[in-house]
């Protein structure tokens, strides 16, 4: 197909998603969760064994909250493609589980990295009378908002915005998760880079959630499945303990505010945010094994 040997633009991602939905209407549905600052869709795909019934559990996976992290969208689109092409093989995993995918949370930032600045991170919010643009979507969520590892300086790469969930991209995600909070058992926020699996809490050091044992064990199993493909090794922990403290991120919000039991940030491999075109498919395939392992645990809730 070639779709996983290069980096598609926003429009191509949208047509790929609606293409899957029209090819597999019984199993897949396309949905817009809202619009970005510049009016692009925050596009979602629902995948389940029967779109006419509502599964009791949801596995939510999102990517590219940071514009420059191109590989992350590809892995989530690959998951959709691979699941739908082999649905029968995943019947057990999908029993009473809906998979909800948002491969491009920050479409404006993503497009900007294709047209203007390859390493743009934030969204493209503009502020009257200021030349700096953009809010870091992963500092904008309403859990310990602007507490640590975030900034109130508009020009900062980790600018947390004017208030919690102020950004349309953030609030589209929050609205979806709030509405489905009793069904969503897994929240995976896919980023790059570093080969990490982070569980909560990331807002401060030495803050350990009550279910840390389960969070670690499930992450370890997912990491082991990834390793099997070609030996890639992930490090597991809280971002505060192994990378840095940062508050207002989706992982802490999903776990702490919404009570979603399995909440993680995954940092894919890559050389400073970039994965070469010929390597996209391999990262997609190894990550797929990890995604499936995470999803397998949803049926225990
Ligand atoms: O800083 C981030 O938002 C994530 N890393 S990235 O290099 N992709 O920007 C890590 C977020 C980890 N989670 C928390 N700190 N809560
Ligand atoms: Zn990121």
**The CATH architecture:** 3-Layer(aba) Sandwich
- CA distance, first residue to last residue: 37 Å
Instruction: Report strand order across the widest sheet.
Output: 1-2-4-3-5-8-6-7
SSE-based structural type: alpha/beta
Number of domains: 1
Low-confidence residue ranges? none
Write down how many β-strands occur, each being a DSSP E stretch of 2 or more residues: 8
Beta fraction: 15-25%
Give the CATH superfamily: Zn peptidases
What shape does the CA trace take? globular
CATH-derived topology = Aminopeptidase
Overall pLDDT, averaged? 97
Radius of gyration: 18 Å
How many helices in DSSP terms?
8
Major sheet details: 8 strands, mixed
**What string gives the helices and strands in order?**
HEEEHEHHEEHEHHEH
Could you explain how this protein is built, in words?
The protein has 301 residues and is α/β, with parallel strands linked by helices. It has a single domain, classed as Aminopeptidase. 33% of the residues lie in helices and 17% in strands. The protein has helices at residues 10-23, 70-85, 107-115, 168-179, 212-230, 239-242, 250-256, 280-296; strands spanning 28-35, 41-47, 57-63, 97-102, 184-192, 196-198, 235-237, 262-268. The chain has an 8-stranded mixed sheet with strand order 1-2-4-3-5-8-6-7, sandwiched between helices. Helix 1 (10-23) packs parallel to helix 2 (70-85), helix 2 packs across helix 8 (280-296) and helix 5 (212-230) packs antiparallel against helix 8. It is globular. The N and C termini lie far apart (37 Å). The model has no long low-confidence stretch (mean pLDDT 97). The structure holds N~2~-sulfamoyl-L-arginine and zinc ion (ZN). N~2~-sulfamoyl-L-arginine is lined by residues 66, 138, 191, 198, 202-203, 239, 246, 249, 251-252, 265, 267.
């Amino acid at each position: 197909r070639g779709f996983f040997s290069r980096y598609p633009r926003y429009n191509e991602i949208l047509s790929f998603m609606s293409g899957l939905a029209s090819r597999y209407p019984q199993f897949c549905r396309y949905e817009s969760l809202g619009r970005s600052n510049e009016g692009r869709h925050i596009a979602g795909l629902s995948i389940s064994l029967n779109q006419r019934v509502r599964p009791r559990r949801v596995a939510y996976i999102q990517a590219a909250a940071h514009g420059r992290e191109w590989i992350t969208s590809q892995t989530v689109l690959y998951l959709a493609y691979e699941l739908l092409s082999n649905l029968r093989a995943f019947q057990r995993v999908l029993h009473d589980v809906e998979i909800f995918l948002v491969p491009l949370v920050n479409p404006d930032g993503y497009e900007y990295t294709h047209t203007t600045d390859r390493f743009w991170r934030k969204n493209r919010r503009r502020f009257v009378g200021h030349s700096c643009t953009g809010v870091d979507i992963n500092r904008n969520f309403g859990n310990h908002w602007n507490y640590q590892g975030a900034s109130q300086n508009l020009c900062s790469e980790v600018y947390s915005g004017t208030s919690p969930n102020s950004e349309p991209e953030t609030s589209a995600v929050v609205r979806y998760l709030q509405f489905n909070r009793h069904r969503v058992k897994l929240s995976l926020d896919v980023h790059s880079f570093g080969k990490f699996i982070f569980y909560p809490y990331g807002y401060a050091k030495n803050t350990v959630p009550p279910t840390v044992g389960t969070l670690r064990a499930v992450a370890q199993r997912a990491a082991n499945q990834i390793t099997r493909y070609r030996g890639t090794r992930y490090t597991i922990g809280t971002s505060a303990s192994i990378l840095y403290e940062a508050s207002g991120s989706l992982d802490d919000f999903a776990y702490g505010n919404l009570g979603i039991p399995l909440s993680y940030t995954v940092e894919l491999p890559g050389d400073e945010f970039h994965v070469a075109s010929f390597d996209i498919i391999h990262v997609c395939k190894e990550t797929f094994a990890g995604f499936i392992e995470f999803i397998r645990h949803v049926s225990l809730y």
